[in-house]
Amino acid sequence: MKYDCQIVGDELLCAITSDQDLAAPVFCFSGMAPLEPVRGGTLIKSVGSYTEVQLPDLAKGKEHKATIKYQAGYKPANRAWKPLGPYLRVGGDIIELPPTEAGRRVPPRTEHSELEGLPLAPQPETWAPSEGVLEADGFAFEDDALSAVSALAQRQGMLFKGTMPIIIETGELETDAYEIEFTPQGVRIIANSYGGRFYAGITLLTLLQQGPIPCGRITDSPRFAWRGQHLDTARHYYEPDTILSLLDLMAILKLNRFHWHFADDEAFRLEVACLPDLWQKTALRGDGQTMPGLFSGAPVQGGSYSIETAKQIIARAKELNIEILPEIETPAHALCITTLYPETLDSTDNGAERSVQGYERNAMNPAMPKTWDIVEALITEIAEIFPFGHIHLGCDELAEDTWMSSPKARALMEQHDLQTTMDLQGWTMYRFAAFARSKSLRPAAWEEAAQGKNGGIGHDAILFSWTGQGPGLEAARAGYDVVMTPAQQVYLDMAHTSDPDDWGASWAAFVDLPDTINWDPVPDADLSDRIIGVQGTFWSEFTTQDDQIWPMLMPRMLGVAAMCWERDKPSIETVAALAGYYSVSSSGEIEISAT
């Protein structure tokens, strides 16, 4: 079976040559957004980006061309926009087609540029060198935080434990702050928290991999308390070991919040006891499954995370001074819920709303009791699993005019003097957040949760500003704590460049390493107390194998880390030079090297 797809202008030209006669094959595939055939076939099914095209009979050895295009003005920007997981269905048989070569082609590792200061990402607050160097085969210590650093080093094949003594003292320092003094005879650490000792250890670990350590004194503390990285494990199931490798990388870069996005339209991957059907029927996605092959790299693909696995990931994160923020999606991005539990929808709603991903009826209706049963059950169980005391409630990309054709929603709106979709969403999120508070959870949500006539979600919620900085600044002025995660700077699923042979999304921008630091998270000093952090984000619509994540994240995570930690504007030249010191292999092994 021969198959090839080429980008021709705004269209995708797919050429199929069968090695046998095939009667009425159906061409099945997914993509970055909804697709439709132009020539060479007839659309017979479309669910979001998942598409089925009826082809004519194929004769052995004769090429057939089918032209497809993206709907709603989307244009293919690079290889990632070609059909994902293509296959033919012939009767009850599946014939897999050769996939597009997926993932970013890793450019050669650059030579180290000249670097002023220490080879550390992020850069320390101050460095005062003195005479001499510290020659060490590793360090000797008795401390739980340094033991966690040592365990990380062992997992990653790095040197850390040895005979050079470390003296640890307590000082009047803020959380996660530390000081280190290097002399030829040993190391002295001053810190006042587990995080401070841990990050001092990470600094030692990093410098030790690069040879003798210059003597001197480091004084260091983070700019933001929230230094995050998000991972979408709903669109693509990542093996637990991949998540653990990501946590190690975060720790090395002094990031301390892992935003675990295990629920979305396409799947719910946490094995909750309260709704077993939810994960049992959406963990696998593809041919013959409840959810079709959306963003899938094979006819059937996926998995789920047991509660035991989740607790192992939580425990590892805790050792690495990382808290995990779990996210459930409400009220939109809930196609898998509305599919399995149609009682969350008003059966008399005849609206034709469609989400930006092309989904119909993917938002739970707040006028339906089942919606509240499901959300409250999920919040209750997640409160018992995740010890951070926070929960992200979603609240993004609700389709315009959702619920406006629902008689039950209209009656609810009249009862509470609500006029618009955003008014009803704000009312709903306020009550979801109140329930989360009753379970001792601080609520969080995407920026849209601030909307609505009553001021949005409330309840001391944290909002994540993703479409740009503007909504975050408005939310901060309205009294919300805000984490800045603007797509144009820190969405690491965006393609690095405009090269059509590159890989990644492009709807927000092309985001290269300088873009991650070419902005100010707090452009208004009056809001410095309200903007509590910065977070990198990685969505997985086009990720079909775990190893594809690393060349997308790196080296841009260095820029995210610099924005999270460094108080002065990071130097583009310095961060670019540091990119030559850090790398991650296809298996998730981290290397820090001076050569």
TrEMBL record:
A GO MF term: beta-N-acetylhexosaminidase activity
UniProt-listed Gene3D superfamilies: Chitobiase/beta-hexosaminidase domain 2-like, Glycosidases
One GO process term, biological-process aspect: glycosaminoglycan metabolic process
Extent of Basic and acidic residues compositional bias: 102-115
EC number: 3.2.1.52
InterPro entries per record: Beta_hexosaminidase_sua/sub, GH, Glyco_hydro_20_cat, Hex-like_dom2, HEX_bac_N
Domain of life: Bacteria
Glycoside hydrolase family 20 catalytic domain segment(s): 224-566
Catalytic activity: Hydrolysis of terminal non-reducing N-acetyl-D-hexosamine residues in N-acetyl-beta-D-hexosaminides
Residues in Beta-hexosaminidase bacterial type N-terminal domain copies: 170-220
SUPFAM superfamilies: (Trans)glycosidases (SSF51445), beta-N-acetylhexosaminidase-like domain (SSF55545)
Keywords: Glycosidase, Hydrolase
Active site, per annotation: 397 (proton donor)
GO cellular component: membrane
Renumbered residue ranges of the record's region Disordered: 99-124
The keyword Lipid metabolism is assigned to this record: no
Family per record: Belongs to the glycosyl hydrolase 20 family.
Name of the protein: beta-N-acetylhexosaminidase
Species of provenance: Cognatiyoonia sediminum
